[in-house]
Amino acid sequence: MLGILGCLVCLDLNLEISYERVSRRNKWLIHHPISIYLAWISIATIVNVGIVIYNLGWNTTKQYGIVWTVIMLIVGAVIAAIINIKKQDTAYILVFILA
């Protein structure tokens, strides 16, 4: 999962998605699909970290489970806020809202 995430981040940075004006065709056929896939992999990575925390036994009671859930939601919100502020990538943000 981290390998896919790393590749997508590199692809996003190399294509300068949301930093450079491109044609409508390139935006819909290249930029939006990459942004959507990057957002889903970002969310899946956050979920996988939560699963690892659960399997390590760090949430022995329900209260710890709630705390870790809130932490993961905050991490997701911070990532989405950073992307929104820096890139204003609508496709990425909409996937985070959906998830």
Largest sheet: none
- Range of helix content: over 70%
Low-confidence spans: none
- Tally of distinct domains: 1
Distance between the termini: 17 Å
Q: What is the radius of gyration computed over CA atoms, rounded to a whole number of angstroms?
A: 16 Å
Order of helices and strands: HHHH
Number of helices: 4
Number of strands: 0
Structural class: mainly alpha
Write down the overall geometry: elongated
What amount of the residues lies in strands?
Answer: under 5%
Nearest-integer average pLDDT: 85
How is this structure best described in words?
The protein has helices at 2-15, 24-55, 62-86, 90-98. By secondary structure, it is mainly alpha-helical. It has one domain (2-98). α1 runs antiparallel to α2. The mean pLDDT is 85.
Task: Describe the protein's topology.
Layout: H1 2-15, H2 24-55, H3 62-86, H4 90-98
Short key terms for the protein model shown above:
99 residues, 4 helices
Task: Characterize this entry briefly.
The chain has 99 residues and is mainly alpha-helical.
